[in-house]
Amino acid sequence: MSDAIIHEVTQSEYKYGFTTDIETEVIPVGINEEVVRIISAKKNEPEWMLEFRLKAFRHWQTLKMPTWANLTIPEIDYQSISYFAAPRKNAPKSLDEVDPELLKTFDRLGIPLEEQKALSGIAVDAVMDSVSVKTTFKETLAEMGIIFCSFSEAVEHHPDLVQKYMASVVPYTDNFFAALNSAVFSDGSFVYIPKGVRCPMELSTYFRINAVNTGQFERTLIVADDDSYVSYLEGCTAPQRDENQLHAAIVEIIAMKNAQVKYSTVQNWYPGDKNGKGGIYNFVTKRGICKGDGSHISWTQVETGSAITWKYPSCVLQGDNSSAEFYSVAVTNNHQQADTGTKMIHLGKNTSSHILSKGISAGVSHNSYRGLVRVGAKAENARNFSQCDSLLLGDKCGAHTFPYMEVNNETAVVEHEATTSKISEDQIFYCNQRGISTEDAVGLIVNGYAKEVVDKLPMEFAVEAQKLLQITLEGSVG
Amino acid sequence: MLVIKNLHANIDGKEILKGLSLTINKGEIHAIMGPNGSGKSTLSSVITGHPAFEVTHGTIEFNGTDLLELAPEERANEGIFLSFQYPVEIPGVSMVNFMRSAINEQRKYRNEPAISATDFLRLMREKKELVEMDSKLTNRAVNEGFSGGEKKKNEIFQMAMLEPKLAILDETDSGLDIDALRIVANGVNKLKSPENATVVITHYQRLLDYITPDFVHVLYDGKIVKSGGKELALELEARGYDWIKQEVEA
Ligand SMILES: Nc1ncnc2c1ncn2[C@@H]1O[C@H](COP(=O)(O)OP(=O)(O)OP(=O)(O)O)[C@@H](O)[C@H]1O
Ligand SMILES: [Mg+2]
Fold it and tell me: Whose CB has fewer CB within 10 Å in chain B, the N or C terminal residue?
């Protein structure tokens, strides 16, 4: 692809600009029933929503933070965190006040000025033509009966759908962070695709317009009814900073009969500085259920950010002949730690799943893949193929693979392959000798390694993700 | 073009090059021969800037520039090309991407705009024909799973793409079958011009039947101990290196 195409592709998404509204209300730090009630009241939620939050909160109080991951997590004081859309303290007033390093990265990713401001937390008022673009999207979607709105709007306008599906895939009892999110979640997105409808656009385009301030406890619910299709993209290649260190999101996907859902993430939360200071802790519960026969869910993720990542996009294959895919690239550099992977739970007959995980570790980082493939007793002819590759840059980093298999039906075929490779000095020198700098050589090799996964992303994000991989690993070899 | 004076170089603290001097002018072809382990590949590595080697004494000038001050990629972009004795595999990086990056880096270095997709594809086609390189190979990852001979051919293909001022061919002939040897040698000859120079490192007179050297040097124990015309290669082929060793030690 020529540079002109790359330029066009990476720029075109941004021309719509952003709207950002910075909350001004603050509630005191700490968490108790009163705080949960205040959050719910501020959002004008109905009684059932408050009840759900309170049940989740009471359950959370009985839990302890999990310790099984291969992570060293500093003690988190949950009483020192503000649980309601805290405004950014000392928000910069212009780009002059923003860390020049960050601006350099924005430039290299090709992010235009207006968006740079939004991402740095500068209040952007009159933003180009975002309003009209949004309206056009909304109209097109509405004509097809597609619901795509914030979670709060969904609670208000589509309470029956929310009540029917919320927490049906990730109950608040699921884990510590899911319980916490269920008690205090800020906002997020809701998607409903009616029967037989093929969503005509990547929901990414629209989403990015709103994605800047998603809050630290985000909640997403995607429901694809019978014979429908949707491709949804969350996240952003631009480095995102946030005053809030702890992020605990929930994503639930429900695919009904013959429905297909493609969910992609590019995530680049601030990983902390070279010494590991600062940086976001990202504890996410993402799960989809192939509820109907013949349904399909695919997860694609490119993870380069966060100081600590704890994330296992998973799938329950309940419907007969349903299938699921998990494609992941997780990069860790400097002091980053990632424990990520997937779970594929085969319950229906003739179900199949495919896992492709590519870990890249540099610096003194640790990158773990943790995968569970479970085949239930009734899951006749289940198939799974898992491929877990690790690429090491330098010799101070670590890659770990923890595959778990529980097979309870003897007709199942479950295969696992793992490889570890290293970028060698001779490979770099070979590229150097052809005129390619070490940085670019690492970029070429890493992107070659990650290609199979990156290719699964929607086109415009694939190009950005490639640049992102290279920038993330800068200075890690040679 | 290339002036090496009293070059000493170490690897892991062990001295391999021990006062080597060599001058190459444009338009010339130099053959370097010498026993195994005498330092021929080390010389190529030092000229191209491999980080494992440390230069302790001496100078290398390339068209008036102090080469030792330049990073390996800068030396490459100045027009120095090495056909590796053992080309490296780079899994996942397609030949097309690799070559386009290399060409564009070179153009950037010369303040030229990036090559257009059409021009690039035309160049690829033209150079593939020159070295009779199979498209199946250029559609694969760099050297991945290539046979020994295919790797060598791929080096010459890359040389043809990059059109260097100084090409160093480190045992490009070893591993090539009889036809491939002829094709590769023809390729080298076609790329030859009064403006560029070639260093051919080889053990065999056979290659020199195709590529006629202006000078033949014998590298022994980290130094050039004997230089002559193309007849020196014939003499070495006939007599081996013992007489050289005796001359040196005498
Ligand atoms: N990493 C290293 N540590 C110690 N010695 C080394 C190292 N690398 C190379 N050498 C030594 O340097 C010497 C010169 O090696 P070089 O590869 O330059 O020889 P050569 O003339 O190219 O030989 P050949 O004809 O076999 O290709 C050899 O004795 C080799 O063992
Ligand atoms: Mg050698």
Answer: C
Distance from CA of A439 to the nearest CA of B (A): 11
Chain B CB contacts of A424 below 8 Å? 88
pLDDT single digits (tens) B173-198: 988 999 999 998 998 999 999 999 99
Mutate to test the pocket of ligand 1, among B11, B33, B218 (most ligand atoms within 8 A of CB): B11
Whether A118 has a pLDDT exceeding 70, the answer reads no
- For ligand 1, whether the C-beta of B12 sits within 6 Å is yes
pLDDT, greater one: A341 or A98: A341
Q: Over 70: is that where the pLDDT of A91 sits?
A: no
Closest by Cα among B66, B73, B32, B36 to B51: B73
Distance B40 CA to ligand 2 centre (A): 5
Tell me, using a 6 A CB cutoff, whether residue B9 lines ligand 1: no
Name the residue type at position A9: V
Q: Is the minimum CB–CB distance between A438 and chain B shorter than 8 Å?
A: yes
Judged by a CB distance cut-off of 8 A, whether residue A97 touches chain B is: no
Residue of B20, B40, B45 to test ligand 1 pocket, by largest number of atoms within 8 Å of CB = B40
- Choose the closest CB to A451 out of B51, B92, B117: B92
Cα–Cα dist A381/A129, whole Å: 52
Give the start-to-end residue ranges of the domains of chain B: 2-249
Output the CA A76–ligand 1 centroid distance in Å: 55
Q: Please tell me the distance from the alpha carbon of residue A259 to that of residue A418, in angstroms, as a whole number.
A: 31
Instruction: Name the nearest CA neighbour of A391 among A438, A444, A342, A354.
Output: A444
Among A230-239, A420-429, B9-18, B232-241, the minimum mean pLDDT is found in: A230-239
**Alpha carbon of A331 to those of A70, A248, A443, A450, B97: distances in Å?**
16, 20, 13, 10, 22
What gap in Å lies between CA A288 and CA A326, rounded to an integer? 11
Q: Looking at the partner chain, which of B72, B77, B97 has a beta carbon nearest the beta carbon of A444?
A: B97
What value does the mean pLDDT take over residues A218-236?
91
- At A208 the pLDDT is 42
State the smallest CA–CA distance between residue A470 and chain B in angstroms. 14
Please say if the pLDDT value at position A15 is more than 50.
no
Closest residue in A to B98 (Cα–Cα): A444
Helix (H, G, I), strand (E, B) or coil at B236: helix
Residue nearest to atom 11 of ligand 1 (CA): B37
Q: For residue B244, is pLDDT > 80?
A: yes
For residue B45, which atom of ligand 1 is closest to its CA?
18
Domain map (residue ranges) of chain A: 11-426
A210 phi and psi angles, rounded to 5 deg: -105, 0
Percent of chain A with pLDDT over 70: 78
What is the mean pLDDT of the segment spanning A435-455?
Answer: 91
Q: What is the mean pLDDT of residues A357-378?
A: 91
Q: For residue A3, count other CB atoms closer than 10 A to its CB.
A: 12
Residues of B numbered 52-81 whose beta carbons fall under 8 angstroms of chain A's beta carbons: which are they?
A: 52, 71-73, 76-77, 81
ipTM for this model: 0.97
Higher pLDDT, A133 or A381: A381
Instruction: Take residue B136 and report the two structure tokens written for it.
Output: 């199946």
Specify the pairing of strand A366-375 against strand B223-228. unpaired
The interaxial angle of helices B117-130 and B95-109, nearest 10 deg, is: 110
Q: Residues of B with CB below 8 A from A440's CB?
A: 101, 105
pLDDT classification of A16: cutoffs 50, 70, 90: very low
CATH for B2-249 (3.40.50.300, 3.40.50.10090, 3.40.640.10, 1.20.1250.20): 3.40.50.300
Model confidence band, residue B128 (pLDDT cutoffs 50, 70, 90)? very high
Cα dihedral A192, A198, A201, A205, rounded to 10, equals: 30
